[in-house]
Design a protein that fits this description.
Layout lengths: L22 H22 L2 H8 L3 H5 L5 H10 L14 H12 L6 H11 L3 H28 L7 H19 L8 H17 L6
Helix pairs in contact: 1-2, 1-4, 1-6, 4-7, 5-7, 5-9, 7-8
């Protein structure tokens, strides 16, 4: 397997020339975007308003994000579902479960997440940014765990098998979260790990 090359963040990289970018401004911009999403929604949010709320120039904002959909996708992602989980490291099963718990966690500004996903249905650019970011995150993390499985002596996954595993995880999480975007119960995630993901990675079932 090859390591996925695509980053799961849409922020533009710093330019090779010119002044270095102050990373603290990223936090100001993300915070401003989340505040405006909560009050104005995606449709009412503008890049000009984000720059003004963050106290930065539009040039500063556009050097980091050129599209509203990319900024919003990165802002919503900071609420936790696509943040790298804290893997316990006790077993492959436990780490798989930690990943699914993180990916299905809809707590924290739940209204912002739900409202953004609803807007994505009618804004293809936002939908594409959100789904690409989440899919890339899941694939990157599953790749790490699949590599651990292979290092432990199990048959390595092919790229096609990894793609199927990613699609399976995303589809089941979306199904269980439902339209309300609720967090998936741990026992449900454990069943997915024990009866699905562990079989794909190692060829065996495990139980808690």
């Amino acid at each position: 397997m090859t390591v996925p090359a695509q980053s799961h963040q849409h922020r533009l990289p710093p330019a090779e020339r010119g002044r270095s970018q102050d990373s603290s401004r990223d936090d100001l911009i993300i915070s401003a975007a989340l505040e405006l999403l909560g009050t104005n929604g995606y449709h009412g949010l503008t890049m000009t308003d984000v720059a003004s709320r963050a106290g930065v120039s539009k040039a500063t904002l556009y050097r980091r994000w050129t599209a509203k959909a990319d900024l919003v996708a990165d802002a919503v992602a900071t609420l936790s579902p696509v943040s790298t989980p804290r893997y316990p490291g006790t077993s492959l099963r436990d780490d798989l479960l930690a990943l699914l718990e993180q990916a299905s966690n809809c707590d924290g500004r739940n209204a912002v997440v739900i409202a953004t996903m609803e807007q994505a249905r009618s804004h293809p650019d936002l939908y594409r940014s959100l789904t690409e970011r989440f899919s890339t995150f899941i694939r990157t993390e599953l790749h790490k765990l699949a590599q651990r499985s292979a290092d432990a002596g199990h048959v390595p996954l092919s790229e096609a098998e990894l793609d199927v595993m990613v699609d399976t995880v995303i589809a089941l999480l979306a199904h269980d979260a439902g339209p309300a975007g609720t967090s998936v119960p741990r026992d449900r995630l454990a069943k997915l790990v024990d009866n699905g993901l562990m079989l794909l990675l190692t060829g065996t079932r495990e139980t808690d």
